[in-house]
Specification:
Helix content is 32%, strand content 32%. Strands 2-11-10-5-6-7-3-4 form an eight-stranded mixed beta sheet. It has a three-stranded antiparallel beta sheet with strand order 1-8-9.
């Protein structure tokens, strides 16, 4: 099982990195498309693998709640849009999957780098999640994510961020 060294989640007030990627629907999806909405962007290593499947299923189960909170979610990996289509159909994913084959978004967000896998250092996708405000600001990030219970932590952070901006 791949291991990454978790880094603590961090809070920032910087502008989120821009992206414009091909989606599983064949259209382009950009950060600008979510202006005025909360956005969760999560990076995962690979379609059709156990951890990535569980993570996608957990986010899919949360889509209705996220929508009520005025938030959207997108998943990003280096897999092709064609691969994403099969993955999405196979497990019924309820949100867009974006293809970053050139790793531009991965690197801009800090979701690409060195990690431990089976005791060896390798370069690859660092399972990461980013919470972006309606103004396009990076509010919170998680790196070296452990899948189980993660979506609940993201929702709690979203609710806390919304409460703090409502004051």
């Amino acid at each position: 099982m791949p291991k990454t060294t978790p880094t603590p989640s961090r809070t920032a007030i910087s502008k989120a990195p821009s992206f414009d990627l091909e989606s599983d629907s064949g259209s382009r999806v950009a950060l600008a498309d979510f202006a005025g909405k909360w956005l969760i962007v999560y990076f995962y290593p690979r379609d059709n693998t156990p951890g990535c499947t569980r993570e996608a299923q957990d986010f899919t189960k949360a889509v209705a709640k996220l929508k009520k909170l005025g938030a959207a979610v997108v998943g990003v990996s280096k897999d092709s849009a064609k691969s994403h289509c099969g993955f999405k159909e196979k497990i019924g994913i309820g949100f867009p999957l974006l293809s970053d084959t050139n790793l531009v978004a991965h690197k801009a967000f800090g979701a690409w780098g060195t990690k431990k896998m089976y005791g060896k250092e390798v370069t690859g996708t660092i399972r990461s999640t980013y919470l972006i405000s309606p103004e396009g600001k990076l509010v919170r990030s998680w790196s070296g994510v452990k899948v189980d219970g993660h979506v609940e932590k993201v929702i709690a952070a979203l609710e806390a961020a919304q409460q703090s901006t409502a004051r």
